[in-house]
From TrEMBL:
GO biological process: polysaccharide biosynthetic process
Keyword annotations from UniProtKB, A to Z: Membrane, Transmembrane, Transmembrane helix
Membrane-spanning ranges: 21-45, 65-82, 123-142, 151-174, 186-206, 218-237, 243-261, 282-299, 305-327
Single GO term (MF): acyltransferase activity, transferring groups other than amino-acyl groups
Tagged with keyword Cell inner membrane: no
Taxonomic lineage of the native organism: Bacteria, Pseudomonadati, Pseudomonadota, Betaproteobacteria, Burkholderiales
Top-level taxonomic group: Bacteria
Protein name: Acyltransferase 3 domain-containing protein
Organism (species): Variovorax boronicumulans
Length: 358
């Protein structure tokens, strides 16, 4: 979905309806947030008896995200330098000390200057890392408060959504700047927190023995349709507050879709493989989207815009998948091995040999 919206930006003559549909692809990030929160809940529960649990959690998360992101920072700097020397008009003012430091420290989710500049789409990594920092305390707190049933988890989602909406409306009253799509306020953890809580709701449903866990696939399918309509109406609305509620509506749509897929006995191996390399694909797809810019204007002279969009989307996805399969092996897996090494060292367990880490 994220690739689709970025490819559509490079196709000039899309009609208003198709432009609006492709723009909705930005909500693919919310799917990533929901799945991330769900998998964290599952893994954190399974490792409940792990020695030095909190420090091990943070090491595991750091080495999952940091190696590829640290590679992407100089990589995209090199891409910008190359484009500039080839006649582009690149701006290097974004590489301020504050922007660079905040990205290296993963606090750019709270720094407007570095929020979404150094690495294309890097805002979601800043928001994700902020969520990681809070997750163990939020998860343990919710469990201790016995908020572990699907109904209780849904209440958490509603309360977080209502709280965010109230804060955003209050900011709107006291601030002349409107609440815009893809703005710092939109990207911020406060606005995305209800989305992560939907991942917690998915976990509570997964662990539930009630009817909602055993219901027929038609139930989440109908719910999926309802949330699709609600999301579409919110997307089409002109109200500023829609960007405070839309991410959560879309997250609920994804939750219903995940429940439908969970009831399907066989899953697509290709989709599972794409899911495994999704982090690399998110980081590197921008490279190929920019590359097709020079081809796009010529192609639109020869074929309809919708066909150009389709072909470029397929080409970008295929190229990104190919490079991501390499970076997943070369960077992500090695980072995970180093994470396991430091966790074992922390816990005083037998360490792997150096050759096993390369």
């Amino acid at each position: 979905m994220v690739i689709l919206v970025h490819v559509s930006h490079r196709v000039a003559n899309l009609g208003p309806a198709l432009r609006s549909v492709t723009a909705f692809g930005q909500m693919g990030v919310q799917l990533f947030f929901v799945v991330s929160a769900f998998t964290l809940c599952v893994s954190f529960t399974r490792r409940a008896a792990e020695p030095k649990r909190l420090r091990a959690f943070y090491l595991r998360r750091f080495f999952r995200i940091a190696p590829l992101y640290y590679f992407a920072i100089p990589f995209y700097l090199a891409v910008r330098i190359l484009r500039d020397r080839l006649g582009g008009t690149e701006s290097f003012e974004i590489y301020s000390l504050l922007a660079m430091a905040s990205n290296i420290l993963f606090i750019h989710g709270f720094v407007p200057e570095g929020n979404n500049t150094i690495v294309p789409g890097g805002w979601s990594i800043g928001t994700e890392m902020a969520f990681y920092a809070l997750f163990p305390f939020a998860f343990i707190g919710l469990r201790r408060l016995n908020l572990s049933s699907p109904l209780a988890a849904l209440l958490v989602v509603i309360l977080l959504l209502a709280g965010n909406l109230a804060v955003q409306l209050l900011i709107g009253i006291t601030n002349e700047n409107p609440f815009k799509n893809n703005s710092f306020r939109y990207f911020n953890l406060l606005n995305q927190a209800p989305v992560f809580s939907v991942g917690y709701l998915a976990f509570c449903i997964y662990n539930s023995d009630g009817w909602i866990h055993r219901c027929h696939a038609s139930v989440p399918t109908i719910a999926f349709g309802i949330f699709c309509i609600a999301s579409g109406l919110a997307w089409a609305s002109d109200a500023q507050w829609k960007y405070a509620i839309l991410p959560t509506l879309v997250a609920m749509t994804f939750l219903c879709l995940l429940e439908v897929f969970r009831k399907i006995p066989r899953q697509s191996e290709l989709l599972c493989r794409i899911g495994k390399v999704s982090y690399s694909m998110y980081i590197f797809h921008t490279l190929f989207v920019v590359t097709i810019l020079t081809v796009g204007s010529r192609a639109e002279l020869l074929m309809p815009s919708w066909l150009v969009l389709s072909l470029f989307f397929i080409a970008t996805t295929a190229l990104t998948f190919a490079i991501s399969s390499v970076t997943e092996k070369m960077i992500e897996e090695r980072g995970s091995r180093w994470g396991k090494y430091w966790i074992k060292r922390l816990q005083g367990r037998t360490l792997p040999t150096r050759s096993a880490l390369v």
